[in-house]
Prior knowledge:
By secondary structure, this protein is an all-alpha fold. It has helices spanning 7-28, 33-66, 71-83.
Amino acid sequence: MKLKCSRNLIIRLKKTSGQMNGIMKMMENDSSCEELAMQLRAVRNSIDKILALMAVENLLDRIEDHHQIELENIDDAVELLVKYR
Length: 85
């Protein structure tokens, strides 16, 4: 079964992309390394959150589709969560 991404995740990723654009402008304007590091950590945290939400959404989707928990139906979502965490 193919993993899906909700509209909410797309919106979150677009916001993260905006943060990255802001960081590039900060770099072009010679912002301090401390400021850049703080913003880069925020982007990393945002991406981590997106990956976790994606895994959880797909896990819940599989549970709802099958009305019961079957390990073979949720392996992809769990693998995604573990692989990228």
